[in-house]
């Protein structure tokens, strides 16, 4: 019985233990799992990092910003972009926030985006650019947990170097 359980554990990829970090403006947390042709991810950051505010929109301009952000996040390339040689296609992107549902209370709120890509040429997957670091000027730092068939590693990405190199 013990042997069977050990065998099962070996067959699984390392499990990412993802502790919710503190609510820190300008910082984001990203989990990426690359397995076969699939890239799956989750990105979390305070809304302030993307919008410059976190309370429910009070003005027309703020309402527009929230709508635009929502539309932008419908494509996971707003968060990360695989190198083009891997021929990855966005499969899913689900953004959740109390700001989107109108349930935000007080001055602080967070965003979570869950997403996936399917890659037609997975052996061509060499890098992932954290597009969000490049495109959202208030987002300064992303703490990445990367899980591949080779193991798990933690990387801190900064604005000036938003590229993740995938060793496979
Ligand atoms: Zn905040």
Q: What this model shows, in words?
A:
By secondary structure, this protein is of the alpha+beta class. It has one domain. It has helices spanning 2-11, 48-51, 60-72, 98-101, 131-135, and strands at residues 27-35, 38-46, 81-82, 88-97, 110-119, 127-129, 141-148, 151-158, 163-165. Strands 4-5-2-1-7-8 form a six-stranded mixed β-sheet. Residues 1-19 have low confidence and may be disordered. The structure holds zinc ion (ZN). The site of zinc ion has 6 residues, from loops.
Q: Report helical residue fraction.
A: 10-25%
Q: What structural class should be given to the helix and strand makeup? A: alpha+beta
The major sheet is characterized as:
6 strands, mixed
Radius of gyration: 17 Å
| Overall morphology | elongated
List the SSEs and their pairings:
Elements: H1 2-11, E1 27-35, E2 38-46, H2 48-51, H3 60-72, E3 81-82, E4 88-97, H4 98-101, E5 110-119, E6 127-129, H5 131-135, E7 141-148, E8 151-158, E9 163-165
Bound molecules: zinc ion.
The site of zinc ion has 6 residues, from loops.
What keywords describe this structure?
single chain, 168 residues, alpha+beta, six-stranded mixed β-sheet, 5 helices, binds zinc ion
């Amino acid at each position: 019985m013990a042997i069977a359980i050990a065998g099962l554990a070996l067959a699984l990829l390392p499990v990412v233990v993802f502790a919710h970090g503190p609510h820190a403006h300008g910082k984001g947390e990203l989990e990426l799992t690359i397995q076969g042709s699939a890239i799956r991810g989750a990105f979390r950051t305070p809304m302030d990092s993307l919008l410059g505010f976190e309370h429910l929109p009070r003005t027309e301009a703020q309402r527009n910003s929230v709508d635009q952000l929502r539309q932008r996040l419908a494509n996971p390339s707003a968060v990360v972009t695989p190198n083009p040689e891997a021929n990855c296609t966005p499969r899913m992107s689900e953004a959740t926030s109390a700001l989107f549902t109108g349930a935000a209370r007080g001055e602080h709120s967070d965003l979570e985006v869950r997403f996936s890509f399917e890659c037609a040429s997975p052996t061509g997957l060499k890098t992932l650019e954290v597009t969000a670091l490049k495109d959202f000027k208030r987002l300064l730092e992303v703490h990445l947990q990367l899980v591949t068939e080779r193991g798990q590693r933690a990387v801190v990405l900064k604005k000036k170097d938003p590229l993740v190199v995938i060793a496979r």
